[in-house]
Each structure stands twice: as C-alpha cells, then as structure tokens.
Amino acid sequence: MESYRGPIILSAIVIYLVVCVAMGLWALRRTRSTDDFFMAGRRLGVVVTAFALFSSTLSGFGFVGGPGLVYLMGMSSIWIAMGVSLGWIVGFALIAKRIRLFAQLGDCISLPDVVAMRYGSDSVRAAVAVVILLGVIGYLATQILAMAIVLQDILQGAGVGGGISLGMTVVIASSVLVFYTVTGGILASVYTDVVQGAVMVVASVLIFLTVLATFDGGFAEISRIVMTDDREAMGPWGTLGVMGCLSWLFMFAMGAAGQPHVITKSMMVRRLRDIKYIVPLNFVTYAVAVLLWLGIGLAMRALVVSGAHPALANPDAAAPQFLLNYAHPLLAGVVFAGLLAAIMSTADGFLNIGAAAITHDIPFAIRGRPVRNRLFWARVTTVALAVVAAIVARYTGDLVAILGAFGWGTFAAALVPVVAIGLNWKRASALAANVAIVASLIINIGSQVTGISPPLGIDVGALSMMVSLVLFVGISLAGRPPGVDKDVEAVMDM
C-alpha cells in the first residue's frame, strides 16, 4: 500500500472536492433569496450550526499553523487553544442570544445591520463593513494560498501534472471554492461544514493515536525527548514566555466574540433556545481537534531532535511531513481532506460576509439602501472577491502577510468593543464605536507595516484590543448618554 500512497491521498482529495461540488448543486435549488444566500434562511439546527462554528474557527491555522507553532515554541500555543475554547463561553454569554434577537427584530442579514440598528448610526455600519472587507481580503488570500500549496504537494506526490505550478493550483483551489459558495451561498457552506467538521474530529483522534505509536514509549517518551533538548519547550509557557502566552489567552478568549464569520452563525439558528446546546458541542469538538494540534507538533519536534527525521525548513511543514511519512496512507488521505475542509470552511465564510459588505452594508450606509437584484450581485461579488484574493495570494505575498497577520487581532480589536460590549451596554455611543475601530486599525496595520512590536512577546492584537476597549468605555462614559430606540432597549433588557 505504501507504493500507492500518492494516488490514495489524491483520491481522498478528489472525493472530498466532489462532495463539495454536489453540496453546492443541492444548495443551489434551495437558495431563492438573499436571506437564503447570507443567512441560510434562518433554519439551521443545533448540529449543523455547531459544526459550522467549529469548522469556521479551526480553519487552516489549526491544522497547519497549530502543529507548526508547537514544533517551534513547544507548549506556548496551547494558550491559543485554551483561549478559543474559553471564547465559546464568552461569546455565548455576551452576544449569541443578543445577536439572534437583534437579527430577528430588524430582519438583519449581516453584522453591520445589527450594529447599525443598535447604535442608530450608518457611520458605525460603514466602519464595521470596512473592517470586515479589509480582513476578508487578507484572510481569504492566505486560505486560498494554503489550499494551493497543499494541492501542489499532493499532486506532485501522486505524480500527477509533473511540475504543476503554484499559479495553476491557486486557480483550481479558487474555482472549487467559488463554485459551491456562489451556487449555494452560506447554505452550501454550513451544510458542507457538517462533513468538514466530522472529518476533522475523526481525523484528530486517529492522528493522535498514530502519534502515540510513533515512539515505543508513547507520549512520555516524546515529552522526555523534547524536554531534554529544551526544558522550556515542555514547560507551561513554552519558549514564548508568560506575558506572550497570557496575551494570546486574552486575545483569543475575548477575540472570539469579534470574529464576524463566526458570530454571524448565531443569526442563522432556527430557534433561540437551541443556542444553549450549541456551545457545549463546540467546546467538545474543538477540544478533540486540539489533539492533532498538540500531537503532531510535539511528535515532529521529537523526531527531528532524535535524528529520525531531517530538520524542517519551515515549521508549517510539520503536519504535511508527519502525514506523508508516518501516517497510514488511508488516514493521511482523510486528514489531508480534513485540512482542505478546514481551510475551505473559513474561506467560504469570508466570501459570504465580504459579499454582504459590498452589496448590502456599504451601499446601505452611503445611500440608505442596498444594491438592486442583491442575490445576483452577491454572486457576482463573491466571484470578484475570490479573483482579487487569488491574485493577492499568488503575486503580492507581502500584502498577504500583512493582512493575514493582523486578521484575528484586527477583527477582535475592532469588533469586540462595538459588538460584545455595545450590544449589552446602553451607555455605549456611536462616536465611541467609530473611534475604537479607527484606533484598532491604526495600531494593527501600523505595527505590521513598520515592524514595531510590543515588548515581552505581547501580541499586538491583544494590545490594540485593550486600547480600543479603553477608548470605547472612556468615550462612552465621558459623553452624554445616547438615546436608544425602544425596541432596541427591549431586546437589550431581555
């Protein structure tokens, strides 16, 4: 079977992509309005919504970046996983119920719709839409590039296409992504997420068992080898240090409530009471996925330290190298399919909210109404966004790095005060929301462009979120209490 490793892995990928195409065709027949395209008709059940949230959060970072960080820093990145897990609870407590009620009250189809109704301000709507659009291009570009790189490695490993170029795999990855997002919108996305989430959960367990079998002494031997090489790597803070780890914990725990591709899923649930069942299911599935994150990273570091595997040129190669060299071919195929699933689940979510920003939110903020024929233009815009992101991914790597690096932190710093605090605090003002958003963008973009980072390993996203929170609260308290619409006030009192 080892001699057929490449074709086996490629077959798993092809089967997965066929499922995505079939799901897009199925969703096309059920997508008849913009409400269907952007909000899945507000008819999602508990399991579908939970897996959609899980898949959107994990993305390519968890399956590629996570093991790479563990390989590089040891236990440091576990604080990210802990932060995201806590983020489910924070997001549920602060906004899940509230945002669903606002969406129902105002028939909202996007996050800017919700904040515009809360603050009674089109300027806040526009500011949030711009933040979303900026983040979407960077995040989407990095997801497409990640898909393209994985596909290129798989095709070359299977001996298909010879020296296929990265540009060609960018086209392939973008085409599949665009097809099922354009045909079915978010409806295709969320139902595909069920398949994606199931693949990721099962794959994580099986890969962790494979990790344990890599060394005769199992996890104890892996830990001993890593600790012998670098004692700090197996310590609670890894090699990043206490301040860096705590800033990650803060940023990812609080920042989960500011990720638009995640929190808008709460607007799609069929029944309000279902939300309380979604969070525990998210917590369990994400905790299982962390097994792959931790296991592969430590195993590859132990293999390299012990001399059983050559040193990695890039830490992000940890997951692909482990799968290609140490996992059973069938399992490797399933996990690579899960990797593409994780990447695509995030990318299709960004295409959806980006299309909403262009066709609905920004026109509404400027002229008081969205574009005509929104469903048609939403699909056209989805294609245009994917094309732009694919070009950025292929030809402007520096821009991808800048936008991708501040992705989570930019969304968190700009949107946590406005959404998580603002939907619960009547004193919050539109001026405070706009200032917090602008300040967070200046700090995040400025840090990436100038290369200036906070001391002690503190994450710039955590710093900018702290600044935006202080500005948001301070300006709101300093100004006169804003008037709140009676219907909005009633929702906030629930």
Write up this protein.
The structure is a single chain. The chain is mainly alpha-helical and 494 residues long. It has one domain: Sodium/glucose cotransporter. 78% of the residues lie in helices and 0% in strands. Helix 5 runs antiparallel to helix 6. About 2% of the residues have low confidence.
Give structural attributes:
19 helices; 494 residues; mainly alpha; 78% helix; Sodium/glucose cotransporter
CATH topology (fold) name: Sodium/glucose cotransporter
Q: How large, in whole angstroms, is the Cα Rg?
A: 22 Å
Counted up, domains total: 1
Choose one word for the global shape. globular
Percent helix:
over 70%
CATH superfamily: Sodium/glucose cotransporter
Order of helices and strands: HHHHHHHHHHHHHHHHHHH
The DSSP helix count reads: 19
Strand content of the residues, in percent?
Answer: under 5%
How would you summarize what this structure contains?
This protein is mainly alpha-helical and 494 residues long. It is 78% helix and 0% strand.
Fold topology:
Layout: H1 5-30, H2 34-39, H3 46-73, H4 78-106, H5 111-119, H6 122-157, H7 166-214, H8 218-229, H9 242-255, H10 260-263, H11 275-305, H12 318-326, H13 329-367, H14 374-395, H15 397-405, H16 407-421, H17 430-450, H18 460-478, H19 486-492
